[in-house]
Amino acid sequence: MVSKKKLYEILENPLAQQIILDILEDNIEGLDVLSTLMELGEATDDEIARQLNMKLNTVRKILYKLYDARLVDYTREKEEDINWYTYTWKPTLDKLPWIVKKRGQELLKKLREQLAVEENSMFFYCPRCEIKYIFEEAMDCGFRCPHCGGALKEYDNSRDIELLKNQIKFIEEELKSSIFHIPTTSVTSKGRRRSRRRVKGVKT
Ligand SMILES: [Zn+2]
């Protein structure tokens, strides 16, 4: 079990927040849903919607996204007389440190690949559309912007390279943080076997 104190510490971490927001497709209200659920321990979607004064439909969409990422779980109960199911949700954040690590590493891989492209290619851009093209693309369209037909100009990507390097460094540093170092045996869930096997597969 990851202690509640530690979970709150993780939720304050900028990389963890970035990754949770990514799971929520940048819906910042999702963070409120998650923290309300943490405060309450468990709640129905209706209770969360009332507490946050949010539309029930919005709350549900958020909960499904969190469920897909295995950050919440639910139990459902049939209401006998109305033939209706009530869903009670609870946070399952024990896997959060592992999820942040895994997604953080995936993000790192993507950014490093992007950096390699930036460092090894020439770029052109359309000043009017503010779109950047890699050399081959620019050549294919005769150095004319495919959107507006304007002449493409050579593009200095040193600033993009610098930004990518900074992002990479930021994620590398955050991933070193001790709050994400959880022994794999602490990962427990419904699909116990499956998640444990997946944990073993993660390079550390
Ligand atoms: Zn253009």
From TrEMBL:
Record domain HTH TFE/IIEalpha-type: where: 12-97
UniProt xrefs under InterPro entries: TF_E_archaea, TFE, TFIIE/TFIIEa_HTH, TFIIE_asu, TFIIEa/SarR/Rpc3_HTH_dom, WH-like_DNA-bd_sf, WH_DNA-bd_sf
Pfam family, any one: TFIIE_alpha
Family indicated by similarity: Belongs to the TFE family.
Domain topic, free-text comment: The winged helix domain is involved in binding to DNA in the preinitiation complex.
Role according to the record: Transcription factor that plays a role in the activation of archaeal genes transcribed by RNA polymerase. Facilitates transcription initiation by enhancing TATA-box recognition by TATA-box-binding protein (Tbp), and transcription factor B (Tfb) and RNA polymerase recruitment. Not absolutely required for transcription in vitro, but particularly important in cases where Tbp or Tfb function is not optimal. It dynamically alters the nucleic acid-binding properties of RNA polymerases by stabilizing the initiation complex and destabilizing elongation complexes.
NCBIfam families reported for this sequence: PRK06266.1, transcription factor E
Protein name: Transcription factor E
Source species of the chain: Methanothermococcus okinawensis
Lineage: Archaea, Methanobacteriati, Methanobacteriota, Methanomada group, Methanococci
